Amino acid sequence: MEHAPPAAPAVRETLERLLASETFGRSERARRLLRYLVEREQAGEADRLKGVSIAMDVFGKDGDFDASTDAVVRVQAGRLRELLDQYFANEGIAEPVRIAIPRGGYVPSYELNAIRLPGDARAATGNIARQPQASAEAAPAADYLDSPTPDEPVPLMAPAAPAQSLTRQLRFFWAAMVLVIAMLGVLIFRQGDAFLGGDTAATTETAGIAGTAAQPVFDSLPLIYIAMNADGAEATRVASSLRAGLAGFDTIDFIGRAPDSTRDQSADPISFVFDIVPGPAAGDVTVELQSVATGRVLLSRNLTSAETAPGVVESNVASVLTSAVPASGAIYSYIDQSDIRTSQIGCLVLDDRYFLDMNAQAHEVAYRCLEKLAAEGTKSSLVYAELAALHGEAVTAHYPYPPDATLEKAMSLAHRAVQMGPMNPHAHRALGYLNSRLGNADEAIRLTRKAYELNPYDLGMAAAYGYGLIFAGKYDEGTPILGHAVEAFSGHPTWWDYGLFVGAFMQGDMKKAAIASESLRTTASKSHYLAARLIGAKISGRDKLAGELANELTAEFPKFAADPRATFVDRKYPADLTDRLVQSLRAAGIGNPS
Fold first, then answer.
1. Least C-beta-crowded within 10 Å: which of 82, 87, 177, 222?
2. What ranges in 146-285 are assigned the alpha helix state H?
3. DSSP β-ladder status, 223-228 and 253-254
4. What span, in angstroms and rounded, lies between the C-alpha atoms of 56 and 432?
5. How far apart are CA 589 and CA 78, in angstroms?
């Protein structure tokens, strides 16, 4: 049986985790080459991935580059393949998507990882036993594979001294042993419960590790500390922006100080610290995100003095935080792959997976998980906000679960989220989304703008605001906002790309519209996504692909193909957008010409 290729958002999410991994942490050339290859392929430009173009675009070679005398591309591609093999055999063994660069070419290939079983029901001890050990072993191989060459920039992180390396390996080893023992105990008590772990009185993994009394399982979120270990005005601005940004995220609990002996050590497995340290050059500031329990660096970003200047530091810190803190970021990914999670964290991971690749099965899994927390009496405004958004999705996409979904019930959940968390950006975003579904464009814009203002450091809130403006007919206002979010965060959900397609299409930027439509390739086809891809293919002159997409659209969504206008009207699209889309689809052979 032939499997569908992984969804584009899932590929982007895997790419971001891979680039932030320890395996690639000291290989700047490999990171740069991999990002270029994947992003070009995902943008539909696989035919550009030739040795000459790679040499010029990635390695700065000029037009006189001769592959027969300069092997830089072949050598670096070989090193990249070895690092990919190493990553997926160790750190990334549980990644949902595997990325490879087949020999004989430079076009990436992707496949779903069979190790991640359906429903995330893999053995809980597997990753915990493997991951810390893999982290300790990855660095020496990376050193050997990617030693700096004379024309290569010096890596941002210097090789660890032997004593430090040994200490780190021992720390990872003992952390792994503690976690394995704890998880075995949890598994015995849970009798094989695959996800939520019985009733609410059950001991969580976190409490089990420490041997202390359990907290309610739905109340634990990642704990975030911040440590200031750099001086100067640049470091002060970075620290100030980090504090302001972290305080606005409701997917974490922000502590606001460095971890010390007074902290609750039972929470260390879900605790992380943003460490601000001096960068490699004068005036540079490096931000490192580390696990408190293991010391592992999940993310490292160096900011130059120009990037920390007043007026731009906020934007650069926003990019760092959006890569780390939301449910799609490095923190939740690390917790999820380590199988150290509270129920709320687990539900938010499932919720994020739905929005990365929207389909009925993923929707029901996420909805039931959040619904259970609500039934257990969670006090989390975030749970109700995401439940409201999923309820609205059930109405819009006609999902079978919950069977009695209505926009009124979704609005009730969203209002409860706002009442429980008046400063919760997710609650206002959910309420704004539902108002847009009801046709209340002005109220939708007001609420999504409020969500963005509550946390301008979350590019997800910026994207929602830009999206709301676009679908209110304010294309010139919304498209730049959404476009900036898309460019700054490559691990974004599919709906960002669809919004960008619509905005660029209505602004007349057909090249950008076509590129955005290519990002809508997904395992879960949706009528409006296929329609956008069809229009993008026609714009690009790819008539064969356009014909295939037209046939697929007609076969899978005959009702839409017969009358696209009805769907756009039902989804409350602006009249001018509806007319333009219908006209373009009609030119591609879709829709009733009358």
1. 177
2. 162-190, 205-210, 233-246
3. parallel
4. 45
5. 45
Round to whole Å and give the CA distance between 34 and 136: 23
Query: Of 577 and 137, which is predicted with more confidence?
Result: 577
Closest CA to 265 of 295, 292, 227, 289: 292
CA quadruple 322, 325, 328, 334: dihedral positive or negative? Answer: positive
Domain that holds residue 100: 8-145+161-170
Burial class (CB in 10 A: 0-12, 13-18, 19+), 342: buried
Q: Which helix (H) or strand (E) holds 109?
A: strand 109-112
CB count in 10 Å sphere of residue 522: 23
Query: Rounded to the nearest 10 degrees, what angle do helices 8-19 and 343-356 cross at?
Result: 120
Q: Is residue 533 part of a domain?
A: no
Give yes or no: residues 250 and 320 share one domain.
yes
Q: What is the DSSP letter of 48?
A: G
C-alpha 320 chain-centroid distance: 12
Strand partners, 302: 286
Per 3-state DSSP, what percentage of the chain is helix, strand, and coil (rounded to 5)? Answer: 60, 5, 35
Contact 490, 12 (CB under 8 A): yes
Structural element, H or E, at residue 369: helix 360-375
pLDDT in tens, 310-355: 999 998 999 899 989 998 888 998 888 887 767 899 999 999 888 8
- pTM of the predicted structure, to 2 decimals: 0.63
* Within-domain flag for 254: yes
Q: Residue length, the chain?
A: 594
Under 8 Å CB-to-CB from 279, ≥6 apart: which residues? Answer: 156, 285, 286, 302, 303, 304
375-422 pLDDT, tens digit per residue, is: 999 999 999 999 999 999 999 889 999 999 999 999 999 999 999 999
Cβ pair 407, 438 in contact under 8 A: yes
165 and 241 inside one domain: no
* Stretch (H or E) spanning 278: strand 271-278
Alpha carbons within 13 angstroms on the beta-carbon side of residue 206 total 25
Q: Contact, 252 vs 331, CB < 8 A?
A: yes
Asked if residue 245 belongs to a domain, the reply is yes
| Three-state secondary structure of 11-35 | HHHHHHHHHCCCCCCCCHHHHHHHH
| Six-digit token string for 409 | 């019930």
Please indicate, yes or no, whether residues 50 and 134 belong to a single structural domain of this protein: yes
Q: How far is CA 29 from CA 77, 166, 489, 537, in A?
A: 10, 26, 20, 33
Q: In angstroms, what CA-CA distances link 38 with 18, 102, 507?
A: 12, 13, 27
Number of domains in the chain: 2
Same-domain status, 39 and 165 = yes
Apex 505 CA angle, 504 and 508, nearest 5 = 85
166 and 231 co-located in one domain? no
Helix (H, G, I), strand (E, B) or coil at 383: helix
**Is 312 inside a domain boundary?**
yes
SS3 275: strand
